[in-house]
Specification:
The structure holds two protein chains of two kinds. Chain A has seven helices and four strands. The longest helix of chain A is centred in the last third of the chain and has 19 residues. Chain A is 47% helix and 11% strand. Chain A is elongated and about 50 Å long. The two termini of chain A are 25 Å apart. Chain A has two domains: 57 residues, no CATH class; 87 residues, 3-Layer(aba) Sandwich (Glutaredoxin), CATH 3.40.30.10. Chain B contains 24 helices and 19 strands. Helices cover 40% and strands 15% of the residues of chain B. The longest helix of chain B is centred in the last third of the chain and has 18 residues. Chain B has a five-stranded mixed beta sheet. A four-stranded mixed beta sheet of chain B has the order 2-1-3-4, covered by helices on one side. In chain B, strands 9-8-7-10 form a four-stranded parallel beta sheet, sandwiched between helices. The chains are: A alpha+beta, B alpha/beta. At the A-B interface, α2, α4 and α5 of A face α2, β9, β11, β15 and α18 of B.
Chain lengths: 164, 617
Amino acid sequence: MAIKIEIESDKIQEIINRHNSNPENLLMILQDIMEVYNYVPPEVIPVLVKELNIKPSMIYSVATFYKTISLEPRGKHIINVCTGTACHILGAEKIKSAFKEKLGIEEGQTSEDLMFSLESVRCIGCCASGPVIIVDKKIYGALNHSKALEILETYEKPLKECEA
Amino acid sequence: MTRFNSVKEFQEYRESLNTAKKKQTRKIISLCSGSSCSAYGTPGVYDELVRELKKQGLDDKFEVKLTGCHGFCEKGPIMVIHPEGIFYSQLRKEHMAEIVEKTLKNGELIKQRLFKIEATKAKVPLEKDIPFYNLQERIILGSNGIIDPASIDDYISVGGYAALEKALSEMTPVAIIDEISKSKLRGRGGGGFPTGIKWKTCAKFKGPRYIICNADEGDPGAYMDRSVLEGNPHSVLEGMIIGALAIGSEQGYVYVRHEYPLAVKNLSMAIEKANEYGLLGKNILGSDFNLDISISRGGGAFVCGESTALMSSLEGKPGRPRAKYVHTVEKGFRQGPSTLNNVETWANVPVIINKGADWYNSIGTEHSKGTKIFSLVGKVVNTGLVEVPMGTSLRKIIFDIGGGIAKKKKFKAVQTGGPSGGCIPEEFLDTKVDFDELVRLGSIMGSGGMIVMDQDTCMVEVARYFVEFLRDESCGQCNPCREGLKQMLDILTRICEGNGKDGDIELLEELGETIQKFSLCGLGTSAPNSVLSTIRYFRDEYESHIKDKKCPAGVCKPLFHYEIDENTCTGCGLCAKKCPQEAVTGKKKEPHSIDQEKCIRCGICYDSCKFNAIVIK
């Protein structure tokens, strides 16, 4: 998906300053950029190269190594299905396939309207409440097929209203 | 708040806190706000409780305290009314008006909210009488239910930082290390390396030394470190400060998972407060000891739990492990001598300094001292965090504390030690859990994950799941791990899809042994454990997948189908109503049947049938 976005350089600079322009904090800087854009836009990479005095290859190396960093744009809402062992045993796969079917996307993909991205996370430590999903930052526990889809609806509705 | 400039000033402050506490007339209501309870709705319950107390004019008699994880996550949200210790669970905000009116105002118990022992149907009003709690020994988790993790004063008033006072005023660094060595504390992250030896070796090397807390709890199914950090972050900090004093370090790091936002938040708050009080920073409690602790957030890479990978990640690089010809205690973070311990290990340090190594040695087995926190999850009735002395049997943990298997199903295996561990079958349930015993069974204690599996769990599929996890998480540097795991996964997937061949089991064993012997780091050397242990104990399940093309547990979709047992089916029609494919048909009150062409084996009918009439064939 080729989306051009305007980079708010003040915001990026503020993130870099917060981490003392220290290249040792590169991963956290990328995570904070993710908080703003939901991904790391290619446009910020030259800024990081200059401000942190590191090579672009180092940034790509770190960005592709860690699962919490994405170089691709993601949806407005990020659905993370926990696939930790406890959730797996309690039926996480069934929850995941419910979302796949409903949204018509595979794991790691974003719906065409850019509303939802479907991802999986290896355990968020809510193992007693499994299967668990996290939508944006909210955790939902003790799910089954139909409860999962009900949750999805609550995210769809307000947006439809917005469009109207 | 001013900084405390001496141990004496600080002790006086604790006394003043305790005097104030004695004068406090308001009763305390603890409400669990750990991640699990919060997911079940603590925030809404809290707001409603506070509103209701105000409405009924009781807000000057009760104080609601949001505490860390109580451990009984299954029953969340949990409330404990002090000083009696009345335990209410599975609360909803609609319950608050009644609780305030009946229990808080009139002192009546509300039966529906009390804990019920499944076997006897007996209701248990008090927290201390619930088997889940009273069979545990909570020396690390104990304070979680009574202190507000956001309040350093709460921690101080229950004796927090007293171990640091002792270490600063009465002990030399050598004496601290000796005490830890004498306690025989071993690393709780899974390695089981003696902490005292680690500290002693690190202190020998020159240069700026670093102390690091490993809070990259990557084992899926384990969350004890998260709960300690969320519920009692100061206990971890206190352990680290004492460790830094002993080793001679002025810079510490906590490497914590980005996926644990509440732990990051509570820990950040704790560090800030400790700095404010003079427990961190320059001249700690007026001494010449300085220490800064920073947080580094991990990026969701399981391999970063390995020490060299974690240190590489701390340096801002990809977390790739290196061969340990030179140990990290000599050359670790920034090539300096570094001591890395797990969250739970650090939290044990203040306890040992306070109560002494002799006391600590009285708990546990010959070579594994103290307690261990397990996260007991999966198909067990009472899921949650369980802290027991080392050497407690699997049976006691799973059946006495955990209440046995849910939904009257049959126990099949318990998986210990996360993806690097193995599955242990029923015949070994009386094994005493410690660092060494589980290794003998082909598993490990690891960091304390304990996942219970029942008759509906397919052991081949579980092995496949772990190998897939590890293949994804392999850093890819060394051949045996990168290529070997991929091959193992291909074979296991093939078996689960019904295309297993003769010789596959032997090939898996051969591959597994090679990966174990020749991988670079602990991820690889332990990766085949789940496969090898399931082959060792559940070879028949592999064989029925390969030879009979059947999945006895009904998990591998191409290898089973559902049928309705005519004699058991009551014709209630629930399955037909729930089936998304409209594959179930039948007349009311007459046995139904499943159209195998339409059935997608989603299992909704199987899960919903109240009469166990749907069977796996």
